[in-house]
Specification:
InterPro entries: DUF6461. By secondary structure, this protein is an alpha+beta fold. The protein folds into 2 domains: about 190 residues, no CATH class; about 160 residues, no CATH class. It is about 50% helix and about 15% strand. It has an 8-stranded antiparallel sheet with strand order 2-8-3-4-1-5-6-7, sandwiched between helices. Strand 3 and strand 4 form a beta hairpin. The protein is elongated. It starts with 6 loop residues before the first helix and ends in a 5-residue tail after the last helix. About 40% of the residues are buried.
Amino acid sequence: MSDYADIDDVFPDPVGLVWMKGIAADEALRGIGADPFGDVDADWSQLQAMLWDSYEDDETSGRVALFGVEGDGAVLIEPMSCVGADTALLRRLTASGGEALGLSWTVNLHVSVTFAARGEILATFDPMELFAATGDDPDAVADWLDSLPVSAAEWHGNGKAAAFALGEGLSGIRVGRAWLARRHRLVIPSDSTSTPALFLDRRMRELAAADPRIAALAAAPGPDKLPEIVRLAVDLALRTTGLDGHIVEEVLDLLATGERGARAAAARERLRSLHAALRQEAQVVYERSGATGFAVPGHDTEIGRLMLRQEAVETLRHALDPDLEKAAANALRRAAATHLNHENGDYLRHRTLTAIQYYIVRGENWL
């Protein structure tokens, strides 16, 4: 891993990479939508010059990458790209066998690492948030990550360097200054024109098999399902916080009828007032307790429960947004902040709803 300690100097700007093993070159190129019979070579500096020229010419694609092969390994590297985080691509590349490791990062330094084999995602995660790592079999992710020759401290310390080292170990290709200075095949990836099928991991699929409402959403995920996603997000927030009252009943009635006009707008204003009242009540409880430091939301203290109820109120308020896409996204986001129960399945319900909502809005998979 120390060989890549200076990787931020080698790549000062965001890139996307996919290291591969056991995948034929022409199959890999077809998988990324590039011409498998192209014969143009370039080095990294030439590729970057071409990229900037395409921006200046107002071309819409602006995609160009290098593809290198050594023995049974290959690597694709594309500047200013999230190709390494494209789980659908990684599944496609490894569907007939082989393995792949994807890495991408953004200008905001959000890093994404994804491992795939035999058409399945073994793990996908941000190195700074290993606790949130997931995969097609979520129960196996932690043990699989533990099997890698990289510790949690190393992922946290320099996740990109760790990924580069693992990519070299997988493909046999060291991507550094020397590799970038050599000429490799120049390819132009193309975005897939077909929408992939909705993907849910194993636990999500098991939930859908047991829950008819989730099953109906997963069977035909489309914009017409957003109101039901909103209603389910509200159910989660209410169940975990116990929030009730006349305004709650009114919101549930509005969601049942689909009304998002004047009555819904008035209800949203009353919810703002309720949120302010709960915040004030929480402040009184905090001062009365004599506590110091920041108050922490949670189910175990009075002030914590009041803070969670504020999030439930926000879930209701966002649920009435006249823009259904915003309503679904924000209601789910706020419902998550109510500290959903893992034991009764609500945490999994939320993850599943999030995956379906993401697919409906973006036309691509969340996982």
